[in-house]
Amino acid sequence: METSATPSEAIFHVRAIFGVVIGLSIAHLLGGLARLVQHPGSKRVYSVHLGWVAFLFTSVIHFWWFEFGLAYVEKWTFQHYLFIITYAALFYFTCAILFPDRMDEYSSYAAYFHSRQKWFYGLLASLFAIDVGDTLWKGTEHLQSLGPEYLIRQASMCAAAVIAMFVNNRRFHLVLVLVMLAFQFYWILTRYKVLG
Predict the structure, then answer these.
(1) Disulfide: which of 58, 75, 111, 178 matches 106 by Cβ 3.0-4.6 Å?
(2) SS3 for 196?
(3) 3-state secondary structure of 108
């Protein structure tokens, strides 16, 4: 069955489900942080874990902000719809890895994080890769507006996440999250100051 809608009707429909999934991502992160405040002595916090919470929180907000560009998509197909919902769901899964429902098996967030680091960094690498597809879908003009450093940034961050899957050195993970956070803020402040 074929349905027809104006571009503004289509984007409103897509944004409804998109907003729910992204809202769940933010709620999961905030709920996890609230539990840390509510029960400060239950499990030892871990700076690397908190750094990735901050990174993902800004990433989800950034994602919601730059997806305003979907307003410029003139024709929606089910494949496009599925792609953007999958992208949003990937954010949720990555956020969910950071704060499990139960921590009974683990002595600290460090123990938990490193027991799931392959999952976490694998999902993170997938987010960096899928972002390129999202950018290309919005057109070559949009890709060019991000400058040549965009693809270098995405490839570097994706490669760093893949490498991090297999590194056990905690100092490496701390340096990585600090560098990623710094670059994330730099990128947002230089590329996405204005909505639209």
Answers:
(1) 111
(2) coil
(3) strand
Tell me what percent of the residues of the chain surpass a pLDDT of 90. Answer: 44
Cβ neighbors of 99 (< 8 A, separation 6 or more) are 28, 29, 31, 32, 35, 53
Taking each helix axis as running N to C, give the angle between helix 7-38 and helix 47-66, from 0 to 180 degrees, rounded to the nearest 10: 160
Cα dihedral 126, 127, 132, 134 sign = positive
How far are the Cα atoms of 117, 120, 122, 127, 174 from residue 165, in angstroms, in the given order?
6, 8, 7, 15, 14
For the entire predicted model, the pTM comes to 0.86
Phi then psi for residue 130, to 5 deg, are -65, -25
Residue 46: its pLDDT value, please? Answer: 93
DSSP string covering 26-85: HHHHHHHHHHHHHSTTTSB--HHHHHHHHHHHHHHHHHHHHGGGGGG-----HHHHHHHH
Convert the pLDDT of each residue in 22-68 to its tens digit. Answer: 889 999 999 999 988 888 777 788 999 999 999 999 999 888 877 76
Q: By the 8 A CB rule, do 126 and 145 touch?
A: no
Token readout for 102 is: 């139960």
